[in-house]
UniProtKB/TrEMBL annotation:
Classification via SUPFAM superfamilies: ARM repeat (SSF48371)
Protein source organism: Stentor coeruleus
Protein name per UniProt: MI domain-containing protein
Molecular function per GO: RNA binding
Pfam family, any one: MIF4G
Top-level taxon in the UniProt lineage: Eukaryota
Domain MI: 277-403
Amino acid sequence: MNSDINSIENEEIKIKKKEEIINRNLDISIVDINDDIPDLDIKARKIRLILNKVTEDNFERLGLEMVKCFQYNNKLLAELVRLVFDRAVNKNFAGLYSKICAYFYNQMKQHSKTVSKCFKQELNHKSEDGLLQTSESLVPLSKFISLLYKEKLINSLLIFNFFDISIKETSSEYQLEASFNLIKQLSPHLASNNPNRLESVYKSISSLCPSNLPKKFQFLILDLTENKSTLTIPNPLIKKAPVTLQNKKTGKNVSFGQAGDFQQVQSHKTKRILKQNVSEETKTILREEISEHVNGKKNLEIIKEIFINNKNKERQLVNQTIKHALINYDREQEFTKICELIIHVTEEINKKEAIETGIMYTVEAIQDIKLDSPMASQHLIFIINHLEQAGVIENSGYLTANLS
């Protein structure tokens, strides 16, 4: 028993030392994202001065300085994003400022998921607002947004929504040019993300009457339609080399993904369950299809295809589906739709047992989820009870015990 206690104490000391090293290297001070912070104007001016010094050679150093030296709340993040967009769009430094955005986000993510998430949300809000305009700044803005998207900082739904409103004969020339730029730059990425919706975008382009448009756009339309087969080849996914492990009881080798893809999860029967993560790209595709399904699109076959293409990862896909629902929805009818989606898809692929384990993962992560959605525990209880009533969970008691 004493050796166990000493082992635990030693482990705690190691963790504390690791945290001290991180804090020394990144002396970051962060307040609640919704709180006011002192001297906001002074901090905003300091950030502006830092951004004025950014070059290809020093953007990492200055990006790290912005992470280390400032407290961030919503207002300061909004000012940071405004300054970044001004330099990227109005001063034509899209490439440089997309790099510093990606670097800032990745560094901040290690130290405050709340701040990094709010930064990303602010980038999306600023992009969405910018795409509503019809002025000439739309064209350089589209270049910057395409680079942010490639850095995985922009949601593809925002891009597709822009296509819906801009690819029309009544649109301004700037809207058409910006949309054509985005299509040309992002088609390979969007094709691996949402090929069906991208196909509808190309149909919209084909439906335009070139003779009603200036020569410049006639050539752009011709270029896109003639090169569609090349442009819509999905951006290749990075496949991880398999790792072969040996089952000690049977002596048989079992092939899995990278060892780092697995974590252990405790079930209610104390059995350890390997959790295999799905790729970030798959998560993005799944989330977007779920959003469209909840909004009324009949795309269950597409979601089923995602589950089929990620064999043996069904539990994590269930987990990702529920997490997405907890963060993005707050109405019982929306959660009911999510439950019906999960039941339908897992029944179709004969994997209903994945539901309960998937929810275990969500229960374990509930404290992190509550950072984004304070009512997550109550909503998860509703989901669990609904699934129990549907007969896919035998006894929800152990799942809800620590949620109320």
